[in-house]
């Protein structure tokens, strides 16, 4: 939850400071798994002492020594014991043959399903008869999601006062999704896509001067050659309805997916009004065909320009998924691309201005997708969470004082963040949890593999934006940290 600098005058661009990533534990910063492992090691050592000591302590040394190592030795900021479930799940998927996906092209798919691999195979689609929007239903998470495309002016080119006004307006949009208590998440997705050059060619055909002169001929040749080699940015917002939180309204309306769509439509109307008030231009809710093209382009980047040039081609959810997927510990390969997903594990610690991610979003020559997932917390849930954190910090401080440990500056900063969040919540502001992900895509070539694993340009841009990235692919946390 970012906080502003109160010393800044009204109308100026206000710097913000993000809260630290909470790394709390049950006792003295130790998690439940660490406490269990440490308890097993302590029980073996105490048992050896009571049984006679001496040689029995040496015999039990592998147990309590391993417990100490699992508890306090860390890799990429995580204790060894916390890697056990990750590695166990990876081994289970490896032995079960779940890392490879091959689509049966000749086998028809059930109507309303998405041809996606893995856990995403459970998703179902529903077309809203009133708005024509394609809604994605996740029966496991019990959510209903709709996507809208948004256009906006270049933020970095605006003067500071206008930037401040737009940041404030965007804050009101985020506050809007916190009020109803029925929104599960709001995802902001900014993608760089290979440009087919069709838009540039159409503009030149309509507004250009075709007089056969040297300038006209040179300009036409430049558009023909450089147009398809360019890239464009696309921004979408994904609004997810928590069907469990909205269960009463859905049951009152009659129940079922159709009634859930009616409730989601109310949230859609509210979001559109908030976006227009923030000087953002929504281009309309994406249909199932447009969502299919979006998914297909993500899995098969090389087909993107072709789908853009041929209009209705590929606008079918039955062909939206990949033909083949191969997953490894460090990367994911789909039809024509290699992908690596980086998790923003730490936001800037110092005061930064709202455009601090410009080096990441505006770097050229890299096909990437930046996803910011905002999870709003209901007021009662946020109050309970803050109260629990305060009790944990106070009790942890008392325990450290008893054993003579010194309070770290990071622990003090985390406690101050909790107090600030409590003050903001009391003042009527909403509380959101942020998750930042950066997906890098490269062509399916040997050079592309190394680049997709960890693109140096993205790392340099992340350093300029003062964010810390950690490798993360397909639900498996890679042993790779970048600061």
From TrEMBL:
InterPro entries: SCO6880-like. The chain crosses the membrane at residues 26-50, 56-73. Keywords: Membrane, Transmembrane, Transmembrane helix. This is PrgI family protein. It comes from Streptomonospora nanhaiensis. The lineage of its organism: Bacteria, Bacillati, Actinomycetota, Actinomycetes, Streptosporangiales.
């Amino acid at each position: 939850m970012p906080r502003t600098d109160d010393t800044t005058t009204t109308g100026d661009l206000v710097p913000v400071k993000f809260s630290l990533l909470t790394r709390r534990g049950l006792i003295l910063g130790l998690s439940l798994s660490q406490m269990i492992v440490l308890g097993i090691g302590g029980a073996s050592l105490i048992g050896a002492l009571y049984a006679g000591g001496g040689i029995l302590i040496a015999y039990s040394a592998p147990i309590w020594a391993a417990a100490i190592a699992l508890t306090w030795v860390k890799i990429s900021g995580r204790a060894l014991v916390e890697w056990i479930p990750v590695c166990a799940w990876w081994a289970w998927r490896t032995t079960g043959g779940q890392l490879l996906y091959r689509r049966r092209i000749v086998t028809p798919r059930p109507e309303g399903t998405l041809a996606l691999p893995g856990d995403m195979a459970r998703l179902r689609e529903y077309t809203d008869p009133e708005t024509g929007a394609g809604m994605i239903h996740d029966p496991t998470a019990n959510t209903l999601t709709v996507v809208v495309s948004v256009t906006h002016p270049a933020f970095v080119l605006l003067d500071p006062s206008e930037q401040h006004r737009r940041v404030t307006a965007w804050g009101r949009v985020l506050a809007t999704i916190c009020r109803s208590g029925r929104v599960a998440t709001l995802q902001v997705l900014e993608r760089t896509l290979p440009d087919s050059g069709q838009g540039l060619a159409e503009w030149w055909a309509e507004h250009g001067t075709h007089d056969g002169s040297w300038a006209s001929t040179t300009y036409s040749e430049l558009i023909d050659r450089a147009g398809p080699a360019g890239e464009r940015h696309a921004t979408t917002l994904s609004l997810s309805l928590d069907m469990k939180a909205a269960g009463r309204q859905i049951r009152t309306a009659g129940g079922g997916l159709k009634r859930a769509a009616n409730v989601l439509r109310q949230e859609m109307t509210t979001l559109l009004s908030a976006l227009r008030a923030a000087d953002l231009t929504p281009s309309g809710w994406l249909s199932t065909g447009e969502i299919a093209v979006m998914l297909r382009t993500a899995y098969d980047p090389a087909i993107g320009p072709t789908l853009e040039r041929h209009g209705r081609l590929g606008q079918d959810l039955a062909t939206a998924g990949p033909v083949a997927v191969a997953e490894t510990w460090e990367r994911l390969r789909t039809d024509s691309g290699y992908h690596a997903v980086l998790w923003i594990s730490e936001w800037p610690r110092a005061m930064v201005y709202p455009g601090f991610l410009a080096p990441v979003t505006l770097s050229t020559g890299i096909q990437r997708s930046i996803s910011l997932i905002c999870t709003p917390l209901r007021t009662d849930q946020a109050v309970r969470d803050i109260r629990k954190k305060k009790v944990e910090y106070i009790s942890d401080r008392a325990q450290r004082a008893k054993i003579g440990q010194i309070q770290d500056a990071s622990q003090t900063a985390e406690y101050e963040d909790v107090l600030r969040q409590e003050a903001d919540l009391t003042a009527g502001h909403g509380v959101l949890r942020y998750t930042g992900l950066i997906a890098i895509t490269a062509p399916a070539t040997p050079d592309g593999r190394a680049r997709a694993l960890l693109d140096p340009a993205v790392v340099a841009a992340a350093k300029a934006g003062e964010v810390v990235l950690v490798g993360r692919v397909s639900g498996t946390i890679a042993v790779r940290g970048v600061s």
